[in-house]
Amino acid sequence: MSWTTPVDVLAAVCILLGAVLTLIAAIGQVRMPDLLSRMHAATKPQVLGTVLVVIGLSLSLRDPAVVGMLLLVVLLQMATSVVSSHMVGRASFRAGQVRDDLLVVDELSDGDAHEEPRGAP
Q: Helix 4-31 to helix 35-61 angle, to the nearest 10 degrees?
């Protein structure tokens, strides 16, 4: 038994777990009741699923050029997913498309609930 067999098994497990997390993200898109919950269900497991699939591919392919490209894919996925979900969430809140009864904490409303001034000093 060489060292490649356990690495290939670990790669297969990572790819399978990444696929399961991506499936969970897709189910969350359909099942969640409002926009903010759907965004949460889409971004959290989707990014972790992508990272696991990329780790599995890196372990399976074992080529430094491919690993560097996959690392770039992960970094861009993490950056764009966070920024895009933040912008969609703010835009939907400002457009009034968020259900207020489902919010636990509302930090974006104009109420006097904040003791500290908002914005940059």
A: 170
Q: Is the pLDDT of residue 40 over 60?
A: yes
Which long-range contacts does 36-40 make (Cβ < 8 Å, 24+ apart)?
A: 36/89, 36/92, 36/98, 36/102, 36/103, 37/102, 39/85, 39/88, 39/89
Question: What pTM did the predictor assign?
Answer: 0.76
What's the maximum distance between 2 C-alpha atoms anywhere in the chain? 67
> Environment class of residue 18 by beta-carbon count within 10 Å: exposed (0-12), middle (13-18) or buried (19+)?
buried
Q: Where are the domains of the chain?
A: 4-99
- Statement: residue 113 has pLDDT above 70: no
Mean pLDDT, residues 90-105: 81
